[in-house]
Amino acid sequence: MCWPKKSAEQRFYPQSIDEIRKIEYPLLQETTYLDHAGTTLYPQSCIARVSKDLTSNLFGNPHSQSPSSALSTHRIEDVRSQMLTFFKADPKYFDLVFVPGATAAIKLVAETLRDHSRRRTNGSFWYGYHAAAHTSLVGVRQLAKPGSTCFNSDQEVEDWLETVGDGCQYDIKASEVGLFAYPAQSNMNGRRLPLDWPGRLRSSQRSEHRSIYSLLDAAAYVATAPLDLSDEDKAPDFVALSFYKLFGFPDLGALIVRREAGHVMHDRNYFGGGTVDMVINGSAEAWHARKQTSLHEALEDGTPPFHSIIALESAVHVHRSLYGNMSNVSGHTTNLCKVLYDQMVLLRHHNGAAVCRVYKDPNGHYGQGESQGPTIGFNVRKACGAWVRKSDFEKLAIINGIQLRTGGLCNPGGIAWALDLTPSELMANYDEGLRCGNGIDELNGKPTGIIRVSLGAMSSMRDIEILLQFLRLFIETHRDIPKTRVAVFEETEVKDLLPSKKLLSISQLVTTGLDFQVQASQHDGKTPLRCPVGTCRLPLGVLSEQELLRHFQIHKIKRPKKRRFDIPRFCSHLCHG
Q: Which residues form the Aminotransferase class V domain (predicted)?
């Protein structure tokens, strides 16, 4: 570990992150955005460049021969080529299909593999997926044959790849088509999984591995790390990703297909406009001929989102001018997240109990970009061990201008692992009323979800300082804190109650979608509902919704104006130094 003279924020980019944020992201002046795993933010100059492009050129529907159509077609193919280059994917060995997002890419692979297996065998394919998979990957099992395999750990995948002869415990036949899928990075806690599995699967000598294709969900990974597909022999057969997670704009995704696996995609049953050379209607005479000139032409149904694809060119250009390359982004975010993690685990209550329960995978190491991305999943606990409700945490975060993510995060396997929830417990929670996003925070003494913070290219040390300052609100510093007197306020007293004009009004908070009503189902009833702020013991159950709203607005931190300390430099991606 070495200590630089300048902060890590100034080391990786052509200009300082403070200057980038001031010019390109003015909305971050009063907002701490920590949900880059959901989507990162687009710079102002990108939108300006797109606007200039659209107002300076006439772009027509590419399914025509007019000059405006030809221009759109030409620009689309240019962008396709640029994106393959961005991921070091040689067009000789790869094709790129534009789709709405990573989920659409995953669904396209699943549907085409199902159709392919119908032509080849009995209409079903074997499916194996890693437990860290996003819900969109898990959903593929509904199109596969019954009894899909869920690998609960990296070691189970390793054993499956290395097992020879008849030692395999999974129901795979040598004549059967199969798909192995996993995320390059967990969207729950940022742990990065091995990228060599697809190559090892392809080089396996086992007969049942020969017809198994690999699908890599790279949506979370590509946002802050370089994806290198230069070695076609080791690359996945299919890569799903979303460009808005990488650039913030446009809302677009891609499926990168290894051409050697392209024949699977040609067996897809459905066809849309622009994907066929001839269609004959009728009952007995029904026939169609799918386009064979290129894989993407046969898979991009209907009119492509040509304005979004054209806008992607500006997004890439501006991203490169601001950040240089993805290795820079990886180094920047890796350093920041290492500092955040190290500080979070040091937060302690008066009795030594940890404030944050961080759900770090044993195989992930903050500060090492090869194994860990810039995402932290955690929950907050009180000194007595009780959980701070994630909904209260998020309400207080929003009041303090901090945007993050809470809940199940569309990662059922990761949540089950983090919260130690068995399948029977999950089913019991569902029977007790737990639904996605319905606000039930705790059942039977266990949280139902977690809190997630994730960093992006434009994150700064100021973001880290603000979050840490906010987390300190939950520290209990004394054993016996006197109970706060419960006051009832009139509507006219709101302005007198609020210590700052910048605090949110009731109407502003209501329009953000916050629900401050305390529901009995959200708590196990074993401990009194009190304000989660460490130095406050106000009983929440005695307050009306508006009174609770006013009370939460009191707990507003003082946001730091500037960074005050440098941070150590850690390996950004490839080594363990």
A: 32-467
Residues 6+ apart with CB under 8 A from 563: 7, 9, 18, 460, 461, 462, 465
Among 209, 264, 218, 211, CA closest to 89 = 218
Please give the residue range of the domain that contains residue 206: 92-269
Domain boundary among 269, 297, 317: 269
What DSSP line would sit under 381-438, residue for residue? Answer: B-TTSPBPPHHHHHHHHHHTTEE-EEE-TT-HHHHHHHTT--HHHHHHHHHTT--TTS
The CATH number given to whatever domain includes residue 107 is 3.40.640.10
Indicate if 386 and 250 belong to the same structural domain: no
Tens-place pLDDT, residues 437-491: 898 999 999 999 999 999 999 999 999 999 999 999 999 997 544 443 333 333 3
CATH number at residue 446: 3.90.1150.10
Q: Phi, psi at residue 341, to the nearest 5°?
A: -60, -45
Which residues are part of the catalytic machinery?
A: 410
Provide the token pair at 342: 């190290």
Q: What is the pTM of this model?
A: 0.88
Domain count, the chain: 2
